[in-house]
Amino acid sequence: MDDHPAMPARLLRTAGPLPAPGTLPHPYPFETVAPRKEGFVEREGVKSWYAQFGDSGPWLAFAPIFQIANTHLLRGVLPYLSQHFRVACMDLRGNGRSDRPATQDQYSFDHYYADFVAVLDRLEVGRAAVVGISATAMTAIRLAYEQPHRVGHLMLCGGWMERRLEHPAAVEAVQQHLAKMRSDWPAYLDEFFTICFSEPHGTKPYEDGVRAGWAAEGPHVAMGLAGWMGHDMRPIARQLACPTLVVHGDKDARVPYSQGQMAAKAIPGARFVTVGGGGHLLPARDPVAFCRMLLEFTGVAPAASTWVRAMARKRKALFVSSAIGLGHVQRDLAIARALRRLQPDLEVDWFTVPPASTYLEREGERVHPACARLANESRHFEDQAGEHDLQAFFALRTMDEVMARNFLVFADVLREEHYDIVIGDEAWEVDYHLHENPELKRQPFVFLTDFVGCLPMEEGNEREAFLCADRNADDIEHVARYPWIRDRAIFVGNPEDAPEQPFGPGLPVIRDWTRRNFTFTGYALPFDPASLADTDALRARHGYRRDEKLVIAAVGGTGVGAPLLQRIAAAFPRMKKQVPELRMVLVAGPRVARESLPTHEGLDVLPYVHNLFEHLACSDLALVQGGLSTCMELVATRRRFLSFPLERHFEQCIHVRHRLHNYCADCAVRFRELGVDELADRALAAMHAPVAYKPVETDGAERAARVIASVLENRHWAAA
Fold this sequence. Notes:
Blueprint: H1 9-15, E1 37-43, E2 46-53, E3 59-62, H2 78-81, E4 86-90, H3 109-122, E5 128-133, H4 137-146, E6 151-157, H5 168-183, H6 185-196, H7 203-214, H8 218-228, H9 234-237, E7 244-249, H10 257-266, E8 271-275, H11 282-285, H12 287-298, E9 316-321, H13 327-342, E10 347-351, H14 356-362, E11 366-367, H15 377-384, H16 392-397, H17 400-416, E12 421-425, H18 428-436, E13 445-449, H19 462-481, E14 488-491, H20 510-517, E15 519-520, H21 535-542, E16 549-554, H22 562-578, E17 582-587, E18 603-606, H23 612-616, E19 621-624, H24 628-636, E20 641-643, H25 650-662, H26 676-687, H27 700-713
Parallel strand pairs: 3-4, 3-5, 5-6, 6-7, 7-8, 9-10, 9-12, 10-11, 12-13, 13-14, 14-15, 16-17, 16-19, 17-18, 19-20
Antiparallel strand pairs: 1-2, 2-4
Helix pairs in contact: 1-19, 5-6, 5-8, 6-7, 13-14, 13-27, 17-18, 22-26
């Protein structure tokens, strides 16, 4: 990047180092949905990329956005909307997968409009709801005027109505913009998207915007902007006859709020929605609000629905369980069973994805059918991982597409069905978006977690430290402003399990804040350790011999642990040579290919073990990845183990190790510090090490259930 000006400090701190200019995100444009159709339309030698997402329902068409962005900027809304519509979208010439013509004559409003019409023709779009965002509102208005048969609904979001250049000051301002685009593209991107996302804690959409702009080049975008100038849509807007929704933020510093007012006044019968405190790009900053407005406006609803009279409704809970690993869902099932003992008439529906949903179905539980529409969290984390390395904070930060899509599916379920309570175990998408959209809370919500606070892992990484603190501050402000969103917040542990360090500069200490905002239940085990105390009986039940030394290696429900299993397998021959009676079982889990692991005599590879804790409880040694659930189960059954926390995984390296230290069970080993031989020797030594763990609570699930039941009963305020 030597041929480019220096990067602005704010850009580097928030968006981080950028790839080579012109690089698109991968996968493009979205992570959680693939196009049903895609291709290129060509006009006068310029190719424009288009795609259709979704294969049923009415048509929805996004007019192509100004060249400083591309289709990726719709990642918070389009994957979900494609479940209700056939969605047509495209990259405007100058960005994305479309061509970047080199001359100004190829960048004009007429070309932009004709490209859009060509895509609609190629996809055979008849009548559609059409969305115009920012400058491309002018394209949508023109389509509604010139082809009224094609536009059933028109939605303008933060849109320009006119870009006239009648005054010298306006001409001078545009010339300054164009000059900066050409001379200092990084500085222009920083300035542009800082203006667009003026709302607090908008660092992630800012980053996405910068990276979308970096996929183009300043001179091309300057020509693109020039093509939008000199147009006034008011005369034709006054002649529109389609239902129109105008949405505009009253703090929009990019397209003045007066432009939205102008549109609402000009278009006959237009409905005007003001986003109070809102900036410029609502679909990127507030995807849930955007989708709700669009669905309500277009009238999209299920073909059939049922309303049940209040006293005829069964008592039901919706349990949202994080699917990252299997530990959450096992403890959640223990809590749900304890809750049923307290409330026998309560039905529980589960809201999660594989492998958690597979486990629940095997246990006879009902997984809600809408879960088929959810994006998979585990897949996202696997895609972010390296060799036994997962920058967990950035994996969470980049999960915003998954979170928006899954929350919107969750909101669909709660709109159509009646639940007495929602319970969410690390249901970050539900918790975040309910705080951002508090009007959507329809029933009591109990939030569970076993860690609080994102913490930086890389010493000297100012960006990571800044963004961790920003995320923590956002969460803290949410809880302070809307304490009633969480009817109860349960910390699955004890006060001392929260670390005594600050959330970030100027922010509270994690333990102090957690004490004020959570109730503590101790750890929630999915079993009673006393029931697993007879090791010989366990071995007989699961096919292990009494006279063999049993080592079990397991890495949870994601594929992130594959490198660890491979190294353990490579160490097995050395271990077997020193301990001939050794038997090792590698539990590959549901997401690690069995054939990726070697075979040796005495080494078994299993694809999945139901209720793995029973096998771990009769082992002589366990080699595990470092997740809290498995480690705590080993502590509870007093098994020897080594844990291998993922590099840069703040939860495993800080929160989990801190808790295990409290139980005198910090057996962590750094994966990168042990070669195959060292791993073998360390494992054999651990097999004979003394165990002095503190006992783990055995009533955590019951205590959590009692807290949840008290919310259902809603009598904490009543006199005895």
